[in-house]
From TrEMBL:
Belongs to the PDCD5 family. Keywords: Acetylation, Apoptosis, Phosphoprotein. It holds the Pfam family dsDNA_bind. One of its GO terms (cellular component) is nucleus. It comes from Notothenia coriiceps. One of its GO terms (biological process) is apoptotic process. May function in the process of apoptosis. InterPro entries: PDCD5-like, PDCD5-like_sf. Residues 1-40 are annotated as: Disordered. This is Programmed cell death protein 5. GO terms for molecular function: DNA binding. The lineage of its organism: Eukaryota, Metazoa, Chordata, Craniata, Vertebrata.
Amino acid sequence: MADEELEAIRRQRMSELQAKQGDASNNQQQGEEAKQRETDMRNTILAQVLDQSARARLNNLALVKPDKANAVENYLIQMARFGKLGGKISESGLIDILEKVCQQTEKKMTVTFNRRRVMDSDDEDDD
C-alpha cells in the first residue's frame, strides 16, 4: 500500500512540475511576442514620421551609439503621439533633433587637481 501511495504522489508531483514548466515557457513566449510587437510598432511609427534619408541616418546612429538613437526614437514617437509633427521629418530636421537631444543629455565633466604640498623646496633652505 505504501508503494502505491508513493507512486501516486510521484506521478502527481511530476505532472505539477510539467505544468509549471509549460507555463514558464508560455510566459517566455508571450514576453518575446510582446517585445516583437513593440518593436514592430516603433518601426511603423518611425517609418511614418521620417523620410528615407533621415531613417538611414538614424539607423547609422543606432549602430554607433544605440542609447542616443533610442533617446531620439523615443522623442520622435512621443512627438508623433501628441501630434506635434507637421509632416515627415527630413535629414536636416533629424540633425536638429539630434542636437537638441545631445544638449539635454550632455554630461559636464570637470577635472580638479589636488596637489600635495609635501616637502616643498621653497619652504626650506638647504644651504
